[in-house]
Amino acid sequence: MDIKPIKTEVDYHMALNRLEEIFDAQVGTPESDEADILGLMIDEYENKYYPIEAPDPIEAIKIRMEEMQLKQVDLVNEFGGKNRVSEILNKRRKLTVEMIRKLETRLNLSASLLIKDYQIR
To answer: Name one GO molecular function term (predicted).
Structure first.
């Protein structure tokens, strides 16, 4: 096992290639240990150089709705009416604190994500 820190793009691509080679290594083998370490190093490098920004609150709601296979009508209680659901999801109206509290529970989304500012149309 010859592991070195990932400092450059070349190092990063070499680490990805090596991980691909040993990804299915049997647990408990040196290759498995190497894959675990490479995975951690690759993750750290990607978090530093390829950060993924959180979606705006409305996009987060839409993503979670899709994951939970929910339709707009399923969130009427959280938004306070059919028309209100449409207005919020089409960014014509902002979320209220009460909506955020209900959505945090129903969709298991953090309030800190839902309170972020976003532009309305």
So the answer is: core promoter sequence-specific DNA binding
